Every structure is written in structure tokens, then in C-alpha cells.
Amino acid sequence: MTALAIEQIAFSYGERQALQDISFRTAAGRFTALLGPNGAGKSTLIALLTRLYDLQHGDIQVAGFSLRSQPREALRRLGVVFQQSTLDLDLSVEQNLRYHAALHGMPRKVAHDRIEQELDRQQLSERRKTKVRELNGGHRRRVEIARALLHKPSLLLLDEASAGLDPASRQGLNDHVRALCREQGMSVIWTTHLFDEVKDDDHLIILNRGNLVAQGRADALSETDGSLQETFARLTLHPVPA
Amino acid sequence: MSSYWECLRAIVAREWLRFVQQRSRFLSALVRPLLWLVVFAAGFRAALGIAIIEPYETYITYETWIVPGLACMILLFNGMQGSLSMVYDREMGSMRVLLTSPLPRSFLLASKLLATALISLLQVYAFLFIAWLYGVQPPAIGLLTALPALLLVALLLSALGLLLSNGIRQLENFAGVMNFVIFPMFFLSSALYPLWKMREASEWLFWICSFNPFTYAVELVRYALYERLNAVALTVCLSLTLLFSLLAVLSFNPQNAALRRAT
Predict the structure, then answer these.
(1) How far apart are CA B229 and CA A175, in angstroms?
(2) What residue numbers bound the domain in which A129 lies?
């Protein structure tokens, strides 16, 4: 089954073409890394996926449901962790989760049980009453992941979720999300511009200047050049820092 | 249906929690009209006598006259402030979470409007209670009959605030627009003086006040506090609430704000 199908997406900001004829599919239960330099079009693609922008051309299907014709069904199956924190800082962890559960129309009893499960899974049970403002970056990210998983989506989208975290926290977050992917069979789209967050067996998609320049297994794509950094530099003409 | 109810309940609860966290907002919402009531009205009491005019059946003090206007002032400030928080959410990114909800956007916006209106009502009744203690005492039952009028006015002003916020790029700009809207609306209305008095002073100012929606909001509340219905005011307020709400929902497009920032 296909978790996400992007079909001939194009988007422009007036005269400036941000995305051109982007098409790809990600299989269910796979970890997919979306890699690209700044200005590649990753944020635009995320904005289209999360309905911040309306589709201009093409279509997006989440678990078989079109964002154009069946947006509600598509969004029910999508969980999102945004690059910028979107938690209510003055509310507690539990209050944030309850609010989000209600936005997805979850009955209170169901929401209560799901919140308990996610707090336990993200190891946040002891911090349920803590105001988000008092949490560190790593914990806030975990709250956002818990929030994104409350309604049991089939596709989890993380938009540069490790931004602003120290290296150890970044690695921990990456490992944690991969574990979710493995253990629950959840499909994950992880957007990043950092090579060390991509593993050899990931399904990798590389964007550059609004174009899809490569897709496939990460190790297969980098076989010719010897490393992912070299492959990236060749495909995007972006020199990799030493 | 239950999913809609849960969502509405959560949006109202969130607004309530944020309101409770910001006690200074509650206090400033009360201090503002109380200053007008206690200081301004006291100073003008001698200069401004109010002849017998509907819905009042006797001569009234100036304080009695301005209480409905001050109650509506609270609703006006809160309506604009509620929309300021929408602009803030848009800037800070929390709007994006709202957009990923599978429930219709129009419902989410309507819930937000209702939540803002309900919180405003609490502040208005706190003010009316203090005004009561100060000696401005409409009929007790009037405090009940005024409730639907106050709710309608709260929705009207919240919808107007939302409509204005849809065209604003940045937080700082909206704060400026708020002042540009609030003070003319308040001063060019029947909140501080009867319109016939305004007409004695200036014909064109009278007509500006007559076309100001806030005048009808104030008159609706004024009559309702005295268990009377001002049919013209009700028609105007109801029509404008529907119109502003519809325009606010139709013009709500976070993409426009995001695209303006991106280009």
C-alpha cells in the first residue's frame, strides 16, 4: 500500500517557480528522508501537504485519499510535527494534547486513553502537568510527536523536527522516530538538510531548486560517488562543507 | 455530531485557560470602563444632563447613560483582541495545527468567534456587577434580558475583528489598526451622548454616528438592560453579524499571509 503519493505537483510564488513536476510515492511502513538544501522546495511541499497552501497543479494522496477531493479523510491519516514549535506555551503538556485530540473530533474517553498511551510511550507521564514553557527543546519535540500520533495517523510527517536541538538530542529524536516506524509499521517522512540523519536503508528523495533530482535507497544512490555527501554535491551543485 | 461538539468545547476551553492565565488582561478590561464610569462620568455629570429618552422613563444620571456603552466597549476591545490572537497564532505557527484538523475551517472559525464572545461576556458581567455596586442599577431582570443582546454584540464585534485580521500581514500592523478602529467606533456613537445632542452640535457628525454599527450595538444593549427591544438595532446588529461572519470565513486564507511573507 502507498502511504503517500505526490503526483505532478507544481507550485509558484507569482513568477518564481518553487516546485516543478514533482512526483513520487512512499510505501507504507517505510522511513523516507526528504533531503535538500535551503530553497529546494521542501517547505513548500510541506505547506501543500499540510494545507497551508492550496494545490495549484497535481494532487497529493495520503493513504489513498486525495487532499483535493477528500481532504478530511486525508488529514485524518496525517500526523505532523512542524519545524517551528506550535505548542501552546502557557498550557500544560496534557492540556495541549487534549486540545489537539478535540480538534480531530476525538470523543473524550478515547482521547483520554490515547493521551495516556502516548504520554507513556514518549516517557512524558511525569511531566503531564508541566507547562510547555518549562520544558527543554527535546521534551517539547516529544510532546509534539505525542500530539501528532494521538489520532493514530498512518503517515507521520516531520518537518526538520531536529532543528534547534543539540547533536545528542537530534540523534535521540531520530532513533526514537525510527523505532516508532519499525515497531508500529508507521510510515514516516523526515525532511532534513543534515546527512547524518539519513541511514543507508532509508528511502531517500533529493530535491533541488524545486526539482526532484533523485529518489531511491540511500545506499544505492550514493554507491557511485562513495558517500551521500558527494552524491548530494554532484546532484545539487552545492559544495559540501569539509 | 459529537466530534463537532468536542472540538467546540475544546476551543472554548482553550480560550478560557488562556484568559485565566492572563489575569492582567481581565483586570485591564475592567479598569478601562471603570475609569470612564468613575472619573469621566463624574466629571461630566454636572455638565451633561440627560433628558427623558427611551428606554428610560425618568431623568437619569450620566453614569446610567454610559454604562451600556462601556459594556459594549469591553466587547469591542475583546473582539479586536481575540483577532489579535489569531494574527499571533498565524505568526507563531500554531495556526498550522488548526489547519491540519479534518473538521471544516468554517466551523473552526465559528467556534473561535463563539469562544471569544463567551469570554467577553464574563468580563461584561463583572463590570455590570461593579457598576451595580457603584449605584448604576438597571432592573435585575434586565441583566438577564441583556444576555442575548450582549452575546449578539460580542459576536458582531468578534466577526469584525476577524475580518480585519484577515487582511493584516503582521502583528505590529494589527495593533495599529485596532486603535484606528476602536476609538472612532466608540467616540462616534451613542455610547457617550445621545445622538440628538450630537445633532445639535454637528449635523455631519450626527450622520456618521447614525451609520456607525457600534451605535446600534450600544442601543440594543441599552434597551435590553431595561427589558425593551430596539427592533432597528436588533435588525442592524443581526444583519451585520451575519455579513461580517460570512466575509470573515470567505476571506480567511492563511496561504495569503504565508505567501506574502515568502515573496
Answers:
(1) 66
(2) 84-152
